[in-house]
Amino acid sequence: MSSVAVLTQESFNEHRSGLRPEKGEDALPTYKDAFPPLPEKAASPEGTQETTNAWTSKIRPLKSSVITQVFHVPLEERKYKDLNQFGEGDQAKVCVDIMHKTGAHLELSLAKDQGLSIMVSGKLDAVMKARKEIVSRLQTQASATVAIPKEHHRFVIGKNGEKLQELELKTATKIQIPRPDDTSNQIKISGTKEGLEKAKHEILLISAEQDKRAVERVNIDKVYHPFLTGAFNKLVGEMMQETGARINVPPPSVNKTEIVITGEKEQVALAVTLIKKVYEEKKKSTTTIAVEVKKSQHKYVIGPKGNTLQEILEKTGVSVEIPPSDSSSETVILRGEPDRLGQALTEVYAKANSYTISSVSAPSWLHRFIIGKKGQNLAKITQQMPKVHIEFTEGEDKITLEGPTKDVQMVQGQIEIIVTDLVNRMDFTEISVDPKFHRHLIGKGGVNINRIKELHKVTVRIPPDNEKSTVIRIEGDPQGVQEAKKELLELTTRMENERTKDLIIEQRFHRAIIGQKGEKIKEVRDKFPEVIINFPDPAQKSDIVQLRGPRNEVEKCAKFMQKIVAEMVENGFCLSVPIFKQFHRNIIGKGGSNIKKIREETSTKIDLPAENSNSEMIVITGKKANCEVARSRILAIQKELANITEIEVSIPSKLHNSLIGSKGRFVRSIMEECGGVHIHFPTEGSGIDKVTIRGPAEEVEKAKQQLLALAEEKQTKSQTAELRAKPEYHKFLIGKGGGNIRKVRDSTGARIIFPTAEDKDQELITVVGTEEAVRDAQKELEELIKSLDNVVEDNMIVDPKHHRYFVARRGQVLRDLADEYGGVMVSFPRTGTQSDKVTLKGAKECVEAAKKRMLEIVEDLDAQVIIECVITQKFHRSIMGPKGSRIQQITRDHNVQIKFPEREDPQGKRALIQENGEADAGDVKEPVDPNAPKKCDVIVISGRKERCEAAVEALKALVPVTIEVEVPFDLHRYIIGQKGSGIRKMMDEFEVNIQVPAPEQQSDKISITGLANHLDRAKEGLLERVKELQADQEDRALRSFKLTITVDPKYHPKIIGRKGAIITTIRTEHDVNIQFPEKNDENQDQITITGYEHKAIAARDAIQALVDELEEMISEDITLDSRVHARIIGARGKGIRKIMDEFKVDLRFPQSGAADPNLVTVTGRPELVDEAIDHLLNLEEEYIADAVENETKMAYTRPHGGSAAGMDEQRGPSKGFVVREAPWTTVYYFPSFGAPVATKSSPWGPKRF
């Protein structure tokens, strides 16, 4: 059922007429009518007195919401009695848990008798809960039972168990009451002794109270219950008030005859007597009559919530018995005194007939218009006639009304008027459209259907997808309905003629085609607005992109998208270039300058592996040719930086896969063994035999021999065997620098391949070679692995002074030993003990090798010397390198320790000098040697003597050297470049510092500071740059040739051309700069040309040729009717441009307000001007007829009489909302403050209108 609102008759008639009569001055509402005052509460003496008492009564003092209570647990009742663990252990944990659970604060203390005192602070509720938890968890528990009558148990529980909870909190006990179905009357209590006694006492008190009370049950026939309760329960209420007992009469809906009376024994007895008395009287004096009342009218006799029955009982003293709603009986029984039954019967029939049911015929499609938006129309009727119930049944052409007869008749009349009006002025139609087109008719976000609704003022109902209906219903104004129907059918026809095409586009391109936030696909959709482009959901992994729309547009869009994909495929070529890891930073350049330059110049994307990655591959993406260029440039940088050799080896292509091995294992093992050379095989299936090896010359040759040997083995009968060993044994099996595994390979001729970090199976070792070589190598390795599995323990003596070296840096040296020697465990004695015994545990060979290595380290430590290297402090930072990389490399290469001094504090030094003008005598113990090096310049190196000396040489080689290069002063600013970009680029490229002297020095010397091996390259680069700049200077001098040409200013716009098109062409073609005179220049006819001499002359000749051509042109004025000018000019000037381009002439139409609006000027060559004029006159003749016809039509369609503006003038200006006797019209309501102000004539200030 829906709720509906309907217009009243008066407002509906007003709505139909569309006009309201204007109100006269007298009819204006007063201020009080328009804005009625709020009702004021009447001040009564009692109310005043109450208020006074409320405010004058004594205010109770505020109490703190936080309370504190102390609980005592005797020693014998303590659950945790361990006196040594006070403040810790389980007891403390329990207290913390109680605090978290209850929110109270607990403090524990021990009394002299070892009893536990607990102070609990917090809100009352929290303290009581904490007390209960303390008793149950910190105090030993006792239990007891108490027996009370079963019927008293519910009083112990209380309403919703509140009484029981209160008892448990109050006594800090746990009380268990047997379930209702349990016959036991025993209540079990558990808690402390004190709590048990309290709980028992409270329960027995409750039972004792209930013993004083009585319960009586009286069976009275159900039909006499209304006489006992009285109308609106007045009689039973009086009985309860008189006796003080509680009388419970079952409600009419409950089919019980038992009436329960509870209270004190005397009260209950009195109540029972009264009830029986009333019952006996009514039983004797009452009689019944049965009448037939329609089932549908029973509810009117009952009334809302049975009120009507109660009213009849109150008025006549007769009880009316209605059959239940699920019964089909229509018999109503009236029970009461005989002389009252007639009056009651009259009341029953009056109530039954007071309501009527009626219906109004109305097409079901009009129901929602009758209801109105959000039920507005129906609300107006229901507000006036609230007793009338209006029901709209979906699918039925009627409206059901139910209510008082008169009200129903009035509502029926109003609804019939509305229905008649709607039938006269509204129509509907239905069209059948395939459901697959429904969502396209609706459009994205309902844009299509909403446009149709607003344009034609109709409502369109398109069935939801789950209905699978083809019927679309259109309702509204008859004309709008027909127009909307026509448009929807046209859209449907167009969609039926549409074509759907599936494009296969790899999913990896979808994101790129769509673009960020859909920007790129939006451009495509804007270009082809009639084509719908649907991409598959990324989760579907589909390559199908669907296009739908008109056939031609779909084809064009498909070609356009295929072109985009082709470009992406072309630009998506990928190339991997192996570059030695140490040269990656050189490829990047300082601040990314090198890599950025290569990317920009080759239009490619270049990705380098992360700094912490072991990969050496640089990936280049873009067009194939561009990728090749980028690769060449990257390889050239590597070749320039290092002694890199590249050779090609011819190996049959059929062997390539076997040489590469599973996941590249074989070829990777060769590359790692030969110092990380790069081996590049051609792409599979290319048929090319050449394999490229790149790297240091010696390693390349070594890799070549191994690759050829492996290829030869593969061509003969090559065998492969696999064996397993724990990953920690691998380093020991390989040996330092691959020594151990090389011995096995040299003795057997087999190749042994160990797993890499990326391999899943870290235990698998592969042996490749001839059958005999594999067998021998496998046997040797198995013996080695077997011996490694035999764990032994050995000891060695290490001087305690060297222990620190092994265990320093969190035992880094020991971890390195374990990695290198099969996971051997080395244990040093604990710090503080003077033992020199060191224990080694592991495989026998690993222990022996580790022991030998440790002895070498100890020998190195014993032979260690300290050498000082003096290098000026200002060079220390450059020696260290970025993040100390250079110094770390020297430390690794020479196995030494290098310590740099602290930086000198210049401020501290000055403070010493300034102390009373002389140094503090107490600080100067002996004279300082002026030739002695400063402490801040001394670098300390420790290690073996020969290694320390080599490290000193390496450090000194890193000291920057400065040289001077002579560069003409006038070129300095070009070398520096814009904002220093030029000099920064050179410094990044050559890894040096270049210092250009200040301009005021006028010096030709430029200083270059850097490592000695970088200076020569930097000097060459700088001199090369000087040569380029000098060549540029000469070129600039040649380009600065200037000449002028005199041209009449009237020809300047023609030479410039539309949007500068002509002059731009001349400038570009001859590579010159052409300058026209400014407005304020004296020589308005001079055009200046600057550039190479021969090009400037050629440009001048081109301009002169234009001028000669313009001088041959003529201008003629013709008269063209101004009414056709707009047609000739066309939309956005398309028509006039077409004429000008076709006849090579210039047309000038008059501006608005010109003296002669019909005058048009044509300029060009004489023969072309004549042709253009003829064409224009022909167009005029053609267009003038249309213009005259349009004017005639306008004369008939123009409205007669005054315009809308005139009508507004007749109505006069709107006065807005006007009321009389408003406060702002009387100064009385706005009295002035203080002395009157003479300048203001109105309380609101001077008028501004």
TrEMBL record:
Q: What residue ranges carry the coiled-coil annotation?
A: 767-794
Name any Gene Ontology BP term: cholesterol metabolic process
The UniProt record lists the K Homology domain at 140-208, 212-280, 285-353, 354-420, 425-493, 497-566, 571-639, 643-712, 717-786, 790-859, 863-960, 961-1027, 1039-1108, 1112-1181
Gene name?
Answer: hdlbpa
Protein name listed in UniProt: Vigilin
Q: What does this protein do?
A: Appears to play a role in cell sterol metabolism. It may function to protect cells from over-accumulation of cholesterol.
Q: List all Polar residues biased stretches.
A: 1-11
Primary location: cytoplasm
Database matches in SUPFAM superfamilies: Eukaryotic type KH-domain (KH-domain type I)
Q: Does the keyword Transmembrane helix apply?
A: no
User: Region labeled Disordered — which residues?
Assistant: 1-53
Q: Which residue ranges have biased composition labelled Basic and acidic residues?
A: 12-26
Q: Where in the cell is it found?
A: Cytoplasm; Nucleus
Keyword set, alphabetical order: Acetylation, Cholesterol metabolism, Coiled coil, Cytoplasm, HDL, Lipid metabolism, Lipid transport, Nucleus, Phosphoprotein, Repeat, RNA-binding, Steroid metabolism, Sterol metabolism, Transport
